[in-house]
Amino acid sequence: MAKPDPRLLDAARYPFHCEIAPRFADLDLNHHVNNVAIAAYVEDARVRFYRASGLRAQFAGLSTMVVSLNIEYLRETDYPAPVSVYCALERLGTTSMTMVHVLTQDGAAVAFSRCVTVAVNGEGKTVPLPEGLDDWMLRP
After folding, report:
1. Exposure b/e, 79-91, CB count within 10 A at least 16 = b
2. Sheet holding 16-20, edge to edge
3. Is the predicted pLDDT of residue 36 greater than 60, yes or no?
4. Per-domain residue ranges for the chain?
5. How far apart are alpha carbons 36 and 71 in whole angstroms?
6. CA–CA separation, 104 vs 85, rounded Å?
7. 13-45: buried (b, 16+ CB within 10 Å) or exposed (e) per residue?
């Protein structure tokens, strides 16, 4: 699979970031953070993004569902240095949104992710996205 566009690895373009400390339990047999742990870091950062952006409150009473998730592993991630996860909205549709994430460790990109999510009501029907998310878009 091709590596992501280098412009997508520029952390300065992302309006949100958080740090996640790898746990010893996240390591594989080679003492690198395993791929499943990286996917969990993306998930954790997405939920933190929802809180920071106000999406969590706007989605009250709804469920969000991941309909597509892609992760590009760019280099090994080590223990115990923290991993910074940068998040931004890349595209907003009527009922779906695409988020991008770049994960860095010690200033170097270690993974890139693109995730498409939708919000659904109690009947499982998709609902329109809220307005006012421009501040959370990927910066030019």
Report:
1. eeeebbbbbbbee
2. 16-20, 83-92, 96-105, 108-120, 63-73
3. yes
4. 6-131
5. 10
6. 7
7. bbbbbbebebeeebbeeeebbbeebbeebbbeb
pLDDT class for 101, splitting at 50, 70, 90? Answer: very high
Instruction: Tell how strand 16-20 and strand 83-92 pair up.
Output: antiparallel
pLDDT of residue 3: 85
pTM of the model: 0.94
- CATH 3.10.129.10 at 6-131, yes or no: yes
